[in-house]
Design a protein that fits this description.
The protein is of the alpha/beta class. It folds into two domains: about 1-65, no CATH class; about 70-265, 3-Layer(aba) Sandwich (Rossmann fold), CATH 3.40.50.150. It has helices at about 5-15, 25-35, 55-65, 90-100, 110-125, 190-195, 220-230, and strands at about 40-45, 45-50, 80-85, 105, 130, 135, 140-145, 155, 165-170, 180-185, 205-215, 235-240, 255-265. The chain is globular and about 50 Å long.
């Protein structure tokens, strides 16, 4: 894939200020940059890691390890973390670097990616994480799932097509103190948060990636009200620039808005 000179300049900046710090060689980073849809094995922090999309892998390294969007503090040596949408394991690896003795439950809906997650954690010597190869949902039931083999797999409703996977009710896990709850589940966050609203008092810190579908009514206001009623203050940042000119309706994605919502308590 041909990349522009501007993209190359940004890549060089990212390499010297980000990728190099996490033991990704210049040659390997350049290969990943030039082949954004590449999957296979590469290296991170001097260990082998399997990836499913080079573009989103590099994006994840920047966001998770350099920008540290999931960084939080805890007086505990072993905080309890629930990771919904763990994908290939970058977030879990980060959490384990932050809190080596943390207790983590990691959910991943895509069965193939869940196996990659397990393999990557094994490569990093992380063997004390509970991996649940199911989609967090509002009840325990079979679901239809549209997999894209990378970060964009999502639950699809009212359709016979798609991969059949198992859903599991997240609310049933919120019965004890959860020091950090991460929810990045590609559009199912509203239903799940609404179902969990009565149990959010157990959660100390929450991260939600909000996805607004072009064809559906936006639910951001309701999610924020749920967080407010649960005693959270919140901070919001753009997760992705879906539309630089909203009034021109130039959006090329099936999302018209993606936001990172950080919920915390004073």
């Amino acid at each position: 894939m041909k990349r522009s000179l501007f993209e190359l300049i940004l890549f060089l900046k990212d390499y010297f200020f980000t990728y190099k710090k996490f033991d990704i060689s210049f040659f390997e980073a350049m290969v990943l940059f030039k082949t954004p849809h590449r999957s296979g094995e590469t290296r991170l922090l001097s260990k082998r890691i399997e990836i499913n999309n080079a573009f989103w892998y590099l994006h994840g390294v920047r966001e998770i390890f350099k920008d540290e969007v999931y960084k939080f503090i805890s007086e505990k040596g072993n905080p309890y973390i629930i990771d919904c949408g763990a994908n290939i394991g970058l977030s879990v690896i980060y959490f384990k670097r932050l809190f080596p003795k943390s207790e983590i439950t990691a959910f991943e809906a895509d069965p193939k990616i869940a196996k990659v997650l397990e393999k990557n954690l094994d490569n990093f010597g992380i063997n004390d994480v509970e991996i649940v190869p199911k989609a967090v949902w509002v009840k325990d039931e079979q679901l239809s799932f549209a997999s894209n083999g990378s970060v964009g797999g999502q639950i699809i409703s009212g359709e016979d097509d798609g991969l059949k996977i198992e859903g599991i009710r997240l609310k049933n896990y919120l019965t004890r103190t959860v020091d950090f709850l991460k929810i990045d589940i590609e559009g199912a966050e509203y239903e799940v948060i609404k179902d969990c609203s009565e149990n959010l008092g157990f959660v100390q810190n929450i991260f939600i990636e909000y996805h607004s579908f072009l064809s559906q009514e936006q639910t951001l206001d309701e999610i924020l009200l749920i967080l407010k009623n649960a005693g959270f203050k919140y901070y919001i940042k753009e997760a992705w620039n879906n539309n630089s000119h909203p009034y021109l309706k130039e959006n090329s994605s099936h999302y018209d808005l993606q936001l990172n919502i950080f919920g915390y308590r004073l």
